[in-house]
Amino acid sequence: MHWLRNAEDAEDAVQDALLSAFKNISRFEGRAQMSTWLMAIVTNALRMRLRRRPRHQILSLNESLRDSQWTPAELLVDPRPTPEQSFEQCEVREIVTKLICTLPASQRAALRLRQRDDFSVRSAAETLRVPVGTVKARLARGRAKLIERFRKATRAPKGGISRPEPKARRKASRTTRSGERSETPASNGFQ
Predict the structure, then answer these.
(1) pLDDT by residue (tens digit) across 44-92?
(2) How far apart are CA 89 and CA 168, in angstroms?
């Protein structure tokens, strides 16, 4: 089977040979052993597969080209984001847009000029008619608030169900008249 130099082609050739032997079992005359007859059919199937093979060299997509560090598979990858990545980027963009609207107007204006409109700090300061240091401070404070709020927004559990902190659970549990402790509905994580 090493004639084909490809395990998949060899498997296909053997499968073709066994199918052919099954179809033509009535022609087996018994003058030779069954294994000899089957080996002849397999050899003929291999030869047929070699004849049908294209005359040019087959290149594996996982092997690097001569004097190249890249494989063809790496060169053929679509550089565009996947649908999942596009959706995630859209969600992040929506969250950031909503969070920017919650910032004070001075920080929001500085961030929009600098990030969205690609103004330099100096140009943003001139547009806002404030000193450069003020713009830098507004940018730093606005970015810090955005980061903090973004982390809080993305850390929130899905579905609106939140688990209370351990202290809140302790406060929520109460003692019944018989002295047994029971949990209030607020302490089981649902509110």
Answers:
(1) 888 888 888 776 666 677 777 666 677 777 777 788 888 999 999 999 9
(2) 35
User: % helix / strand / coil in the chain, to the nearest 5?
Assistant: 65, 0, 35
Distance from C-alpha of 185 to C-alpha of 172, rounded to nearest angstrom: 8
- Residue 125 in tokens: 């300061």
Q: Which residues contact 19 (CB under 8 A, 6 or more apart)?
A: none
- Does this model's pTM top 0.85? My answer is no
Task: Write out the two tokens for 161.
Answer: 């169900």
CA angle (31, 33, 35) in 5-degree steps: 140
Tallying the residues shown for the chain, one arrives at 191
**Cβ–Cβ contacts within 10 Å for residue 139, how many?**
18
Alpha-carbon gap, residue 106 to 142, rounded angstroms: 9
DSSP code of residue 94:
H
Which residue(s) pair with 181 in the sheet? 175
